[in-house]
Amino acid sequence: MPDRSPARVEITGEGPVLIHGPVELVMPDGVRIRSERAVTALCTCRRSRRYPMCDTSHRRCARNRRKESE
Questions:
Q1: pLDDT over threshold 60, residue 70
Q2: Residue 7: DSSP 8-state
Q3: Which residues sit opposite 32 in a β-bridge?
Q4: How far apart are the C-alpha atoms of 26 and 66, rounded to whole Å?
Q5: How many Å is the Cα radius of gyration of the chain?
Q6: pLDDT by residue (tens digit) across 14-45?
Q7: I need a labelling partner for 5 at 20 to 30 A (CA). Which of 18, 36, 50, 67 fits?
Q8: What are the record keywords, sorted (predicted)?
Q9: What is the C-alpha separation between 55 and 16, in angstroms, rounded?
């Protein structure tokens, strides 16, 4: 019998959205992406080269902003 517990989605604020547990993403063009990982990180800044998956590109941008404001 499949596990019916709800997926947990974590909004991190300055980084990706974290989805805990397996997930299937449906893209605007209908392509489906399945992730069986324990935690899947979804990009919210659109800088990821692996969009919609996060590749931590937001970290480089945040560092650059900090340097400019100093």
A1: no
A2: P
A3: 26
A4: 35
A5: 15
A6: 789 999 999 999 999 999 999 999 999 999 88
A7: 50
A8: 2Fe-2S, Iron, Iron-sulfur, Metal-binding
A9: 9
